[in-house]
Write a structure and sequence with these properties.
The protein is α/β, with parallel strands linked by helices. The protein has two domains: 350 residues, no CATH class; 126 residues. Helices cover 55% and strands 8% of the residues. The protein is built from 22 helices and six strands. α1 runs parallel beside α5, α4 runs parallel beside α7 and α20 crosses α21.
């Protein structure tokens, strides 16, 4: 029977999750989409079994939310905001099963205050959908190992498959779980049973849509992933990315959380009060992912959010050792844990406020929020005005020289028209699969780009062009007044001659696919 204290912890945890959810839902509609979010929203208008960069879950969920709540920032971010709430629920359940509900309460409390996880929720990217899948797979995997439950193995497989449909980082769940099973003799025996392997087959079956799409598109997604992993880089080992990777993790997790994680991963004595099986499970499900990306950072640049899923189990481990809900309560202080939680919130809350209003005295170079969210709505209005002033607006398309500008224009121009990304000089992306030259030959174009010198290159794609128009985007800061965020250039082209798709500079570029089929018959406004 559950005690009053356990029920109180459950209720308090539920309130934290609901309050945090309400705050994020409020914030989510109060700032403009960053370019990657606008790009994923574009995916949702071109639903498919797969995409060039990532699996399709982010597009599917945004598409559903947008159909229910409209084509708004709130709808775009709703899936990932809900995703962190689901992550919180599963981490509480995992902590309660392994340790105590009080431990689970402190896990959830810390989770809400970490920049990395708030960013994954409020900026709609595949990470925000990967996190709940990883947390759920960890929970059901732990239950399967503890109780030898066929049902739990099947649920683990389902969540693994959903995670693979969200982001390929989920693949690291397999070695993480496998290493744990090898390390614990009672778990190792389950490798000889049928159910773990059936769960794996179910996960692979869930991933089938991505395999089908890639089989018809030259395995483009896997080429992209290998490229990001540095397979084309001739320098096997370099130190230039390692410090950047570690410094980013310090900031995104908060310094104390990151340093304590390293300590509990590496020090057996620190975690001596935990059951070996529980410690092994949580270490395997967290340290394995971090180790993979840490080693890769000696070869290629690793983005700060990539190891995010691995920290989920690590936070449970920290709470079991340091929080007031720790295992084997001893007469020692929890001051270190309290400082850790307060520090995390002190770092995160100002950034959340910065999304709503520039409360921090940051220059534009340091304020990524301002650089990525300021002025897209005003830019959309300006481009729309120029578009309607063209001689043949019905035979005119809207473009960006990067998918970022093309996607922002699609979202913030009145009527949310279809837009095109001219990728010839950039990198391959999803626009290569939606449009080809035959759809646009002879039409006029209105476009946006960043580097003024691009006009001479654009002139080769049209019969003729007008001189570019400079557009400056500003924000008003209470600290610095009117600040220039970025300068863009608007250009008008007449008589498009072709040249949409990316052209590799080197023929052996792993990203090069022999044939890309445009799968969209979109009407261009």
């Amino acid at each position: 029977m559950q005690t009053t204290k356990e029920w109180n912890c459950t209720i308090a945890t539920g309130l934290i999750i609901l309050v945090a959810l309400a705050i994020r839902l409020f914030i989510s509609s109060r700032f403009l989409l960053v370019p990657d979010e606008a790009n994923y929203w574009q995916w949702s208008r071109h639903l498919a079994l797969g995409y060039h960069d990532h699996p399709p879950m982010i597009a599917w969920t945004i598409g559903l939310a947008a159909r229910l709540f409209g084509q708004t920032e709130f709808a775009v971010r709703l899936p990932t905001v809900l995703g962190l709430a689901v992550t919180s629920f599963y981490l509480f359940a995992l902590s309660a099963r392994l340790f105590s509900r009080r431990c689970g309460f402190h896990v959830v409390l810390l989770l809400q205050g970490i920049i990395l996880f708030n960013g994954a929720a409020l900026i709609a990217t595949p990470d925000g959908l990967l996190l709940p899948c990883w947390a759920a797979a960890c929970y059901h995997g732990a239950m399967a190992l503890s109780y030898r439950s066929p049902r739990q193995w099947l649920l683990t497989g389902i969540w693994f498959g959903l995670g693979m449909l969200s982001k390929y980082t989920m693949l690291l769940f397999l070695p993480s779980l496998f290493f744990c099973m090898l390390a614990i003799p009672t778990y190792r025996k389950q490798l000889y049973t049928f159910w773990p392997w059936l769960g794996l087959l179910i996960g692979i079956a869930c991933f089938t849509p991505v395999l089908i799409w890639n089989s018809h598109n030259g395995w483009a997604t896997f080429r992209h992933v290998l490229y990001q992993g540095g397979i084309d880089d001739n320098n096997l080992i370099t130190l230039r990315y390692v410090v950047d990777f570690l410094g980013t993790q310090l900031l995104l997790l908060s310094p104390l959380v990151f340093l304590l994680l390293l300590l509990v991963w590496l020090s057996k004595s620190v975690r001596s009060r935990l059951q070996p099986a529980d410690a092994s499970f949580l270490i395997s499900m967290s340290a394995t992912t971090f180790a993979v990306f840490f080693l890769l950072s000696f070869h290629v640049r690793i983005y700060g959010n990539w190891p995010a899923a691995g920290y989920i189990g690590g936070i449970v481990l920290l709470a079991a050792i340091y929080s007031p809900g720790r295992v084997g309560a001893l007469p020692r202080t929890t001051q270190l844990w309290n400082i850790t939680v307060v520090t995390a919130y002190l770092m995160t809350v100002p950034i959340l406020l910065q999304l709503l209003y520039p409360v921090l005295p940051l220059s534009i170079n340091l304020d990524r929020i301002a650089r990525e969210t300021t002025g897209w709505d005003k830019l959309g209005l300006r481009v729309d005005h120029v578009f309607h002033s063209m001689p043949r607006p019905k035979e005119t398309f809207i473009f960006g020289l990067r998918y970022q500008e093309a996607s922002e224009l699609a979202f913030y121009m009145p009527g949310q028209p279809e837009t095109v990304s001219i990728n010839k000089w950039a990198r391959p992306n999803v626009y290569d699969y939606w449009f080809d030259d035959t759809m646009l030959l002879g039409k006029d174009g209105v476009g946006i780009y960043e580097w003024k010198g691009m006009a001479q290159y654009l002139a080769t794609l049209f019969d003729h062009i007008d001189l570019p128009e400079e557009i400056k985007l500003y924000r008003i800061s209470p600290w610095f007044g009117k600040q220039l965020v970025q300068t863009l250039y608007l250009i008008r082209g007449y008589g498009f001659k072709g040249g949409l798709r990316w052209q590799p500079k080197q023929q052996d570029d792993i990203r090069a696919v022999s044939k890309v089929i445009a799968t969209s018959s979109c009407k261009l406004k």
